[in-house]
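Re: weekly structure request thread

Next one in the queue (299 aa):
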Amino acid sequence: MPHGRRGMTAVGPPLVSRLVAKQFPQWAGLPVREVSTVGTDNMIYRLGDELVVRLPALPRAAPTVGREWEWLPRLAPRLPLDVPVPLGSGVPDGEFPYPWSVYRWLEGQTLATRPDLDMRDVAVRLGRFVAALQRIDTAGAPRSPRAVPVRAGDTEVHESIERLAAVGLVDAELATAVWEDALAAQPWAKPPVWLHGDLLPANLVARHGRLAAVIDFGQVGTGDPATDLLPAWALLTTRTRDVFRAVVGVDDATWRRGRGWALKAGLGAMRIYRYTNPALAAAGRHSLAEVLADFRVTP
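Done, posted below.
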């Protein structure tokens, strides 16, 4: 049934308890409580102290569930940070129309709510994660939903620049220059690599003061490595960006395409969420500000 906001499906602890009891009786009776998140595609519920239930909130998120079921158990042992591995795979029924998952709970706080970390250490750890992911064999891997050429976003980017410039939120000339530079960069001509596809601060988890886990692999698959450079601008600053770049090992053309992706993401977040989701809008503002500042000082 519709949730009443952007077509979201209505879910609550009683329904989650019933779904778990029917499909995973070994966990029946564990307390269920909702977890507040900044994301828009999934709903998260703690199940007892050690488990978490993740359910698609929108039809577009449903196909990503199977992608995580199949690939996270294979990728997890090869990555230097914790990732969620499914413990139970729920199926649609008369009460809930989409597949859903039970995972082990990963303790910590997302970087969307933990700005007090050593960001140089974060840059190193995140760079190692991205580099390790890119090195994993891609045989049989699916194409990431984010695996599209930078140019595919051209119309959207120009519309966003126009609308945000009209209300004084972006320097249209500078933003357009960044985008044109990304379009002019040499396209990725090597074999596609593994991508997370959504490395926003809300999907990075800190524990004991250090980056410890990466979550939400709904966009996982193969594509242009520029896509996973997003946190260079969405999270980091001029003081730590080059550390991340050096650890990942990024050529100039890929860096320029990545900056274009970060521009697109920042513009989109500000345009779509500035009135409805303060956390995502703030990430968009950070990304946009860092992209423009970085481009100003580019030789």
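The domain at 13-105 is CATH 3.30.200.20 (Phosphorylase Kinase; domain 1). The chain is about 40% helix and 15% strand.
Next request, please.
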